[in-house]
Design brief:
Layout (H helix, E strand, L loop, with lengths): L3 E10 L3 E11 L4 E5 L6 H8 L7 E6 L2 E2 L4 H7 E4 L11 H11 L4 H14 L15 H12 L6 E5 L7 H14 L5 E6 L2 H7 L2 E6 L2 E6 L1 H6 L4 E7 L5 H8 L5 E7 L2 E6 L2 H14 L4 E7 L3 H9 L3 H16 L1
Parallel strand pairs: 3-8, 3-9, 6-7, 7-8
Antiparallel strand pairs: 1-2, 1-4, 4-5, 9-10, 11-13, 11-14, 12-13
Bound molecules: adenosine-5'-diphosphate.
């Protein structure tokens, strides 16, 4: 039995915003699964449906063996949720926050206190336990949210963008905490728009774009799918897609070409050997290169291949759409 199963989920928000467009994936028990996608891909909407906070227009889903529509109470008992906003009461201490969570789930007495003490220790909050949460640093607050979500021993933990807004060092610390959750039988669904985060933490991941899963597998499998190296050329003055494709037509070693704004993304079996030919062909066509890099495939390249645009480009498009929406 899968810990999470989502089948053909669809959800349209008012204004004809298609947040989910037939999204499906399955998560094995006891693993960390990553939902990776740029802002606006539909990750939070998926989490809302799986945690019974929103209804899908179509499709079905189950969590820990309970159907999200038919048995929402069963789902809620089996899950812990750390939302992007965080859930703690800033005017209560860390320990009080955790105690309240236990009481919501009918826990009390020595059992509850033992559970709280052990989680405080696991998340390095023992010393800060009796201070008000508002006095905690950003990283401590995030750790408190995870510890609190685990008080009632959920079988499935949802972490929605757990490191967004954190400093790089604090983010690295959080990655260690999340990595430590593995191996305790807990299933973790992590949503993120950080490629590196998914790469490091997720055993399996689904790349989500425009409300659909466009690729699924382990980070290594996804990267292995991409044969050879990625060549990225920054074009000094930009160029039309067709012009670049024509210029590179027949250059030995080049297997794929994509142009985006002022960047040319190509693939080649042997990047280093292919670059001179690429540059010569561009020069012959009067297209000026400003910078060139050759790299082993990254998840960014995987995303580019399946979504037809780079991650940063997708995020920029969403930002523009959001600005237009708020006008
Ligand atoms: P992600 O978590 O991947 O950033 P979301 O699930 O939050 O994506 O959003 C998917 C799409 O649905 C976006 O276009 C977003 O603007 C839209 N959306 C999300 N929530 C609402 C809402 N409550 N009302 C209208 N549109 C929404």
């Amino acid at each position: 039995m899968y810990a999470i199963e989502a089948a053909s989920l669809a959800k349209t928000y008012p204004g004809d915003v298609r947040a989910l467009d037939g999204l499906s994936f399955s998560v094995e028990q006891g693993t960390v699964f990553g939902l990776l996608g740029p802002n606006g891909a539909g990750k939070s909407t998926t989490v809302k449906i799986l945690t019974t906070l929103a209804h899908p227009d179509a499709g079905s889903a189950s969590v820990a063996g309970h159907d999200v529509l038919a048995e929402p109470a069963g789902v809620r008992e089996a899950i812990g949720v750390v939302s992007q906003q965080g859930g703690h009461d800033r005017e209560a201490t860390g320990r009080e926050n955790m105690r309240l969570q236990g009481q919501v789930y009918d826990m009390s007495g020595a059992d509850l206190e033992r559970r709280i003490d052990s989680l405080l220790e696991q998340f390095h909050l023992t010393e800060a336990a009796d201070r008000l949460a508002r006095e905690y640093s950003g990283g401590m607050q995030r750790r408190l949210d995870i510890a609190t979500a685990l008080v009632h021993k959920p079988r499935v933990l949802f972490l929605d963008e757990p490191t967004t807004g954190l400093d790089p060092e604090v983010r690295a610390e959080m990655w260690e905490e999340i990595a430590r959750l593995r191996g305790e039988g807990l299933t973790v669904l992590l949503t993120t728009h950080y490629l590196e985060e998914a790469d490091r933490l997720a055993a399996q991941l689904a790349i989500v774009d425009k409300g659909k899963v466009v690729a699924e597998g382990s980070p290594d499998e996804l990267k292995r799918e991409l044969r050879g190296d990625a060549i990225h050329v920054e074009l000094a003055n930009g160029a039309a897609d067709g012009d670049v494709a024509t210029a590179l037509d027949g250059v030995p070693g080049v297997t794929e070409v994509m142009v985006e704004d002022r960047a040319l993304h190509a693939r080649a079996d042997d990047g280093a050997r292919t670059v001179p030919g690429v540059l010569a062909a561009l020069e012959a066509a009067g297209i000026e290169a400003a910078a060139v890099t050759v790299a082993r495939p990254s998840l960014d390249d995987v995303y580019l291949r399946h979504a037809g645009r780079t991650f940063s480009e997708a995020e920029a498009q969403t930002d523009t759409a959001d600005q237009e929406e708020s006008r």
